[in-house]
């Protein structure tokens, strides 16, 4: 089998062990091994969407890393022998100006000028909110333990979460909607930034422009033993 490696830092010894069991490639891998922390996992899903990920923790903080380096050889043998399951994680898709933006953790609209609040409308099924604040975060269950939880103090296991960032007219309590729901966000005042996960490439949103968000067609997959 072929594996791609996405890593934080240099991990020569681990690469040597991996090469004993698999062919290391950059294109068309059967699996992706993420070595690092939560940010490395997000980067690996952007680079290799929906290809099964094996997550190895080498970062001091990693909520989503499943395995430590000292178990590497054991889990590589199990992977090679087919003794594993695949866990699915929902992703989100945003449509803006004809472009599709896919996220594993969250999609957010954020104020471009940190000293000025934005005013925006949020529609989801029968829900409507007119909000003044720093922005809105739309999160998956996978991403709800990160930025979403830092704002709301809560995480969730099912559905899609909506949280308002430093909202002037709404409390920190999040809104959880069905994963089949469709969300529309309309920016009414000032300019904002459309962001996904920890991607440093963002899109500028102007007044009266709309963003449409829903569950992505393809999930992410993680190797589980």
Helical fraction equals: 10-25%
Strand order of the largest sheet: 7-6-17-14-9-10
| Global mean pLDDT | 94
Number of domains: 2
- Series of H and E elements: EHEEHEHEEEEEEEHEEEEEEE
CATH superfamily of the largest domain: Probable inorganic polyphosphate/atp-NAD kinase, domain 2
CATH topology of the largest domain: Tumour Suppressor Smad4
Query: How many extended strands?
Result: 18
Largest sheet: 6 strands, antiparallel
What overall geometry do the principal axes of the alpha carbons give?
elongated
Low-confidence stretches: none
Top CATH class of the largest domain: Mainly Beta
CATH architecture of the largest domain: Sandwich
Which radius of gyration do the C-alpha atoms yield?
A: 19 Å
Describe the structure.
The protein has 225 residues and is α+β, with helices and mostly antiparallel strands. The chain has two domains: 2-83, Probable inorganic polyphosphate/atp-NAD kinase, domain 1 (Rossmann fold, 3-Layer(aba) Sandwich); 92-217, Tumour Suppressor Smad4 (Sandwich), CATH 2.60.200. Helix content is 16%, strand content 42%. It contains four helices and 18 strands. The strands form four sheets. It has a six-stranded antiparallel sheet with strand order 7-6-17-14-9-10, with no helix packed on it. Strands 13-12-11-8-15-16 form a six-stranded antiparallel sheet. Strands 2-1-3-4 form a four-stranded parallel sheet, sandwiched between helices. A hairpin with a 2-residue loop joins strand 6 and strand 7. Helix 1 (12-21) packs parallel to helix 3 (72-80). The two termini are 18 Å apart. The model has no long low-confidence stretch (mean pLDDT 94).
């Amino acid at each position: 089998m072929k594996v791609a490696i996405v890593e934080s830092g240099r991990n020569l010894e681990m690469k040597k062990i991996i090469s004993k069991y698999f062919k290391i490639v950059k294109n068309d891998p059967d699996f992706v091994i993420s070595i690092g922390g939560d940010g490395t996992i997000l980067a690996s899903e952007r680079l290799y969407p929906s290809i099964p990920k094996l997550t190895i923790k080498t970062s001091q903080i990693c909520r989503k890393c499943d395995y430590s380096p000292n178990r590497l050889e054991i889990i590589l043998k199990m992977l090679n022998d087919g003794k594993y399951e695949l866990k699915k994680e929902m992703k989100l898709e945003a449509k803006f100006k004809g472009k599709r933006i896919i996220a594993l953790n969250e999609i957010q609209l954020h104020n471009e000028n940190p000293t000025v609040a934005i005013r925006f409308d949020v529609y989801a099924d029968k829900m409507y909110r007119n909000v003044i604040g720093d922005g809105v975060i739309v999160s998956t269950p996978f991403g709800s333990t990160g930025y979403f939880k830092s704002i709301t103090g809560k995480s969730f296991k099912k559905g899609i979460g909506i949280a308002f960032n430093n909202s002037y007219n709404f409390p920190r309590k999040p809104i959880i909607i069905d994963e089949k729901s469709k969300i529309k966000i309309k920016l009414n005042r000032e300019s904002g930034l459309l962001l996904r996960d920890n991607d440093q490439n963002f899109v500028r949103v102007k007044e009266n422009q709309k963003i449409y968000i829903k569950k992505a067609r393809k999930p992410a997959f993680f190797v589980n033993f």
